[in-house]
Amino acid sequence: MLKIITLVCALVGLLSAVSLESWLRSRIVRNETSANTFAEVKSRYSEFWSIQYVPLVIMLALISAALFFFVGHLNAAVFLGGAVLCFVSVLAGSVTAVTGSIAPSSIAVTGDIRNALKTSYRSAAVMGLFVMSIALVGLGVLFFFLDTEHLVKLIASFALGASVVSFCLGLSGTAFSGAYSLTVKSDDFTDYSGMFIGSGADHVETYILSACSAALLAEVGVDTSGVMSTFTATSAARYPLIVFAAGIIASILGIMTYRGHVVKNPAAGLTAGNYVAAVVIIAVSAYFSNRILQSYIYSICVGVGIAAAIASAEAAKAYSADGIAFRKYLPDIKTTGAAQSMIYSLSIGMISVIIPAILTTTAMVIAYKFANFYGIALAAIGINAMAAVNCAVRGFSINTASASDIASLTDPDAESPNPADVLLTASARTDAVGKTFSSTASYVTLVAMFTALSVVANNMSTNLLSTSVYTGMMIGAVVVFVCAGLIIRSIRLTSQVLRGRLSDSDDPEKRITALRGQFPIYAISLLVPLACGVLGGVNGLIAFACSASITGMCVIFAFNNSGRFFDRTATETLGTVIKLMVAVTLVFAPLFMDFGGIF
């Protein structure tokens, strides 16, 4: 029964995505200007994908070889399966990267801004529905056709494969889009296709990692349930898939609620879909929690996770580009200059960390009280069940920013309300919401992964004063800042390539230069976690994962709300780096369980 429900919901999500994509293509206003712009955006989209394959294949080959020789041949095969699943889902969802920019702008310049906003939102929803539906099919194959013992042994490798693909696409996507924003001329527009693709990759990675954590913590759920006769590890591992299945249907309902608003607040009503989806997910999770796990408390864990994410996202509106905090504290940029505004932006972003930190910590404490560490995993499952609808919100901000650039070139002298201005305002007001929701999902998922690592390593207590633990914690904190700096550097190097706008996307020198700043990040993400294991054994791995997760997410929350000068190093980039490093520790932990480390 559960298999059928999961499969049907995934197929409904896929069919909805295909239908929306067909509808979007019919929305493009056909004329010479839109045709030329479409061709240019498509060329840039192809240019982005042309530089992905070589580093991605190299990364996958190296890691699969390491898994084959040091962990197991089945782990290597499942790792590649997770990578293929993530790549296919993002590739399928990215078909709207082009139409998502062209359709809203071509509609907006005709004066129909309401439909332009609705089109932008639904084009982003296609990405969310594709990646979540395809990911659910892949997870269903593993969870329903493997017994619990094999699932626990293989699921971390599967998640690592998805994480590697997300890491490569997210890092390259941000560098690509960020470089365009640095090199764009007055008669050109910024390309956001890389950022859009990176956002989809980040969502599907967190989605799969949360399922992995829940499966690894299922036995903990059984041990603390008090209903040993009916509550099994198998049912505890499969329950999240039902929540995910409900999330797809709930997201479709939520996506269809947005009709477009144009008065003073063009983004008004955009997040109503989040509330609709949340209600449906909590209701369905409560029903199956009682039916499968013989108690409603597990749906409470799902609910508190969703509540924390929604509350954090709503609070982030105050710190958006035109939010209360910025209007109150940020000096007039014309008076003080860009440098002072950057300083104020960064200070406001750092202060904003306290809100999501308190909300997510409270949610995880409540979830732990109800269902131990398994409850924390369920809180992450609840947030990620809304991934499709949040991907629509996050993609909406990216699509409208791109459409605003295009509209400003198409019709620069438009009368009030200027279509480009309306689209840009809508983008700014939803950007903070989408990023904060994604960051909250990543943070709770990382905590669940960290606890799963402790369970896998049979080490639930750690001496903070030991040398191995202190070393791991210090490395974990420092590597976050090193990676953030390298991400900024990679954007600068990529901008040097785009400044020349080489027409030949197959030029090997262009590819090498564009990726040069990313190679050190690739090496750090793979080697540093393993080095912590060598230095401190399994204690070093656990300390590294804990420190990198907490430090990294604080930095990400701060950068999210610090304006466009900093936010491109946040969720889709630094977040994917940290998730990959923690996934590496999870997969290779068995190698260090009997090894005390150098220290």
Summarize the entry for a quick read.
Helices cover 81% and strands 0% of the residues. With 599 residues, the protein is mostly helical. 60% of the residues are buried.
Q: What's the order of the H and E elements?
A: HHHHHHHHHHHHHHHHHHHHHH
The rough form would be described as globular
DSSP E strands, number: 0
Which residues sit in consecutive blocks of at least 5 with pLDDT less than 50? 501-506
State the secondary-structure class. Answer: mainly alpha
Radius of gyration of CA atoms, rounded to a whole number: 23 Å
Strand residue content: under 5%
Characterize the largest beta sheet: strand count, sense, and whether it forms a barrel. none
Share of helix among residues? Answer: over 70%
For the record, give the distance between the C-alpha atoms at the N and C termini, rounded to a whole number: 51 Å
- Count up the helices: 22
Summary tags:
single chain; 599 residues; mainly alpha
Question: Describe it for me?
Answer:
This protein has 599 residues and is mainly α. The chain has one domain. It has helices at residues 2-25, 32-50, 53-70, 73-93, 96-108, 113-145, 148-183, 193-216, 218-225, 233-255, 272-293, 297-316, 324-329, 333-336, 338-351, 354-385, 387-410, 419-456, 467-500, 508-516, 519-560, 570-592. The longest helix has 42 residues, at 519-560. The protein is globular, with a radius of gyration of 23 Å.
Helix-strand layout with pairing:
Layout (H helix, E strand, L loop, with lengths): L1 H24 L6 H19 L2 H18 L2 H21 L2 H13 L4 H33 L2 H36 L9 H24 L1 H8 L7 H23 L16 H22 L3 H20 L7 H6 L3 H4 L1 H14 L2 H32 L1 H24 L8 H38 L10 H34 L7 H9 L2 H42 L9 H23 L7
